[in-house]
Every structure is written in structure tokens, then in C-alpha cells.
């Protein structure tokens, strides 16, 4: 199992928020380095998932381009994932969290209250 998180928070904090062009450049610099670190785990993959929408297109494009390249190189299927759902389901990468909970999701221009059901499906509340 390989899980690594790279934060750009400090890079953007001086601007008071995310700068799309800076985010895209930082993504393009960080992703190849991260892939080199996890290269030995590629043999365990059965697919490549990538968040594709909604979001800042220049930033998403960095990840989409890298995911397409990786999926092609490894001959694996590419699975598009809703960016907002990606935020939610990433909660389960680091900790064991039970389902059946309320979620306040605030991401860029998107704010919503959701209910995460026992079957991992989402219901929009507000």
C-alpha cells in the first residue's frame, strides 16, 4: 500500500487562496516525483482513477494528463472520478471511518451538505 500527500498550502497562502496557474505548475512538478517514489507499487494496480470535474481546469488537466499517460504505459483502464467525490472518499485513505455520516463539503466555489449512506452513496441535503 502506498499513500502520499503533497500539499501546496504554503505556496498559495501568500495569495489568500488558490492561484490556478501556480497550482497547475506545482502539480506538473510534483506528480512525476511522486510517481518515481511509488513506482514499485505499480504492479499492484488494476486501474488508474483521476478526478476530472468540477474544478480548476488548468489544475485538473495536470492530473488528467499524468493519469492518461500512466494508464496507457501500464495498459490499465482509466476511471474518471468526480472531483468533489474524490475529496469525500479520500477521507478513507488514512483512517478507518464508518459510513453513515453528515458531510459539509467546501471546495473552491462548491459548498454543500451531504449525507454519506451506509452503502457509500451520497445524498445532497443542501
UniProtKB/TrEMBL annotation:
Pfam family for this entry, one: TsaD
GO BP terms in the entry: tRNA modification; tRNA threonylcarbamoyladenosine metabolic process
SUPFAM superfamilies (UniProt xref): Actin-like ATPase domain (SSF53067)
Domain Gcp-like, residue spans: 5-123
Alphabetically ordered keywords of this record: Acyltransferase, Iron, Metal-binding, Transferase, tRNA processing
UniProt superkingdom: Bacteria
Enzyme Commission number, as recorded: 2.3.1.234
Metal-binding recorded as keyword: yes
Catalyzed chemical reaction(s): L-threonylcarbamoyladenylate + adenosine(37) in tRNA = N(6)-L-threonylcarbamoyladenosine(37) in tRNA + AMP + H(+)
Keyword Iron: yes
GO molecular function, one term: tRNA N(6)-L-threonylcarbamoyladenine synthase activity
UniProt name for this protein: N(6)-L-threonylcarbamoyladenine synthase
Source organism (scientific name): Campylobacter jejuni
Amino acid at each position: 500500500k502506498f499513500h502520499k500527500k503533497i500539499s501546496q498550502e504554503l505556496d498559495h497562502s501568500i495569495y489568500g487562496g488558490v492561484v490556478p496557474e501556480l497550482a497547475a505548475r506545482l502539480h506538473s512538478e510534483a506528480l512525476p516525483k511522486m510517481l518515481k517514489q511509488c513506482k514499485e507499487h505499480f504492479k499492484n494496480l488494476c486501474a488508474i482513477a483521476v478526478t476530472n470535474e468540477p474544478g480548476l481546469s488548468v489544475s485538473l488537466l495536470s492530473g488528467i494528463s499524468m493519469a492518461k499517460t500512466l494508464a496507457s504505459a501500464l495498459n490499465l483502464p482509466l476511471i474518471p472520478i468526480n472531483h468533489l467525490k474524490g475529496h469525500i472518499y479520500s477521507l478513507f485513505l488514512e483512517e478507518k471511518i464508518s459510513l453513515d455520516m453528515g458531510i459539509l463539503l467546501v471546495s473552491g466555489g462548491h459548498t454543500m451538505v451531504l449525507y454519506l449512506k451506509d452503502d457509500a452513496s451520497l445524498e445532497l441535503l443542501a
